[in-house]
Each structure stands twice: as structure tokens, then as C-alpha cells.
Amino acid sequence: LKEKEIEKDMEKALEERQFYIVVQPKYDPVTERIIGGEVLVRWQHPQKGFVSPGEFIPVFEKNGFIEKLDMYMFEKLCMQMREFEREGIYNSIRVSINQSRILILNPDYAKNIEKMIQRYEVPVENIEIEITETVFLDEKEQVIEIVNRLKEVGVHLAMDDFGSGYSSLNILKDVPFDVLKIDREFFSETNTSLTSVLILEKIIEMARAMGISVVCEGVETAEQVDILRDIGCDFVQGYFYGRPMPIEEFYEKYLRNEE
Ligand code: C2E
Ligand code: CA
Ligand code: CA
Q: What average pLDDT does range 111-125 have in this prediction?
């Protein structure tokens, strides 16, 4: 029933701009300075109020609407980056955005992304695209080709939810990722066991040797940050450093008056 309701309202929601962008900061645990942000979608429904992405993203992935929403989010991000730049807020940090499997399967995807970046004249090196390993489940060769084309466009590429699935390591050897994002379940507040820390330390070591940086997600406590800093984790994202906030607030707070 809930699914039906979400489907009934989605097109109108897009037209009426009920979807908007929030951004969550990412920090360098050594310098304790912001180094980037992750773009996340929010849905403010006129009657139901806030609807969680955990509810509607799976529905949109099933019915295909995610393609429209993700492209809308990408364009909106480019537009806003351009707008901030005009207001004198320089896009000096990298922002990442989630893109679903369906988009990557479209042979025109890389071209569409390139067009968008050119249209809004955003600095391509400051855009990072997050995909999960499930993107590679079927039609692997085709997906690898599209992802490589994306790299040629110049965006950075992150593997999201690393460590939550089955074949992550396997994919690393075929795809030139720039960033690994460690799933928050892997290193949660209740799971800072010696074993997980040890595995994490080795993953970070391996990533470093491959020239890939590592972001740990869902970091909520100072204790977690201390451990991550000790084992050489490059970047940290989570409630400890900041919650997702509307994009206007994010740029005002972190980037106004910055070089
Ligand atoms: P994700 O990509 O793994 O995003 C991180 C999620 O963890 C976000 O949930 C964020 O709010 C949450 N989070 C961040 N820090 C903490 C923390 O310290 N503790 C805890 N418990 N949670 C934290 P959110 O915004 O509800 O998004 C859920 C998922 O929905 C995302 O997981 C992503 O897979 C998907 N999603 C969100 N926005 C988009 C989008 O624009 N496009 C697509 N395709 N998927 C999206
Ligand atoms: Ca993500
Ligand atoms: Ca994630």
C-alpha cells in the first residue's frame, strides 16, 4: 500500500520540487578540517511531511523512477554549485553524489553527465560519483566500460558501502576507483572489535598502495574517530562531525570566505 502511494505521488513531487538536496560534511581526522560533502536526497511531502530515502529509494529503484530523480539531483547540484560561485562562494571542496544502477546501464550516461558539467561550467575534479558494487551484478563488462568512460570525463569515482556485500575486492581490480567508502555497519559504535579494526587497517593499507583513499561512514563517537585516525583512515563522515543539512546552509557554513 505504501509503495502504491509513493508511486502515485512521485511524478508530481518532482514537478513541484518536493525533492531537495542536503549535504553531509566529510572531515580529515588529522587536521579536523572539512574536505568534502555527500549529497543526499530529501522528500518533503505536502501532506505526509518528511519521507525517508530508505522508504522511497528502493521503490524508485524497482520502478525505474530513480533514473529521473538521480539526473534531477545531478543537474540541481550543478546548478547550485554554479549559483554559489556567482555569489562568490567558491567550489573549493569535492562533493559526492549517489547514482543508481539503472543510470549506469544507460549507454548515454557518461555523455549526459559530461553535458551537464559543461552546461553549468562546474569544476569536474570537484565532482565524485558514488556507486555500489551491486551496480556490477549483471552485465559486468558493459558496466565497466561505462564507468571507465565516466572516469575519462574527469569525475572522481567512489565505491559506496564497501564491505557490505560479497564481491567488493573482485571489482577493485577491474575498476579505477578513487575512493572506498566503508559501510557504517562494518565499523559501528557497537562493532569496534579488534577483528574489525584489524581488517579495516589492512583495507586502508591496501587502498593506499593502490592510490585509493578511504572514507569511513556513520562515525558517531570521538572514540571511533581516534581509532580511525590511528589506523590511517583518510576521511571520516558521520554524525560526530556533522549531520546532512540543506545545501544552502552547507555552502554558507563551510565555504563562505574560503579560498
Ligand atoms: P548512503 O549512500 O550509505 O548514505 C549514508 C546514509 O547514512 C545517509 O542516510 C546518512 O544520513 C546516514 N548517516 C550519516 N551519518 C550517520 C551516522 O553517524 N549514523 C547513522 N546512523 N547514519 C548516518 P539517508 O540520507 O537516509 O540515505 C539512505 C540511503 O539512501 C543512502 O545511503 C543512499 O544509498 C540512498 N540515497 C540517498 N540519497 C540518494 C540519491 O540522491 N540517489 C540515490 N540513488 N540514492 C540515494
Ligand atoms: Ca552514498
Ligand atoms: Ca554508504
A: 97
> pLDDT tens for residues 41-51?
999 999 999 99
- Among candidate residues 183, 131, 128, the one with its CA nearest the CA of residue 153: 128
Query: Residues with Cβ within 6 A of ligand 1?
Result: 24, 40-41, 52-54, 57, 66, 70, 73, 98, 100, 160-161, 217-220, 238-239, 244
Report how far residue 112's alpha carbon sits from residue 244's, in angstroms, rounded to the nearest whole number.
Answer: 27
One-letter amino acid for residue 119 of the chain: R
Cell output for 29: 581526522
Q: Which of 7-21, 153-167, 181-195 has the lowest mean pLDDT?
A: 181-195
State in Å: Cα 230 to ligand 2 middle. 24
Q: Which residues contact 16 (CB under 8 A, 6 or more apart)?
A: 46
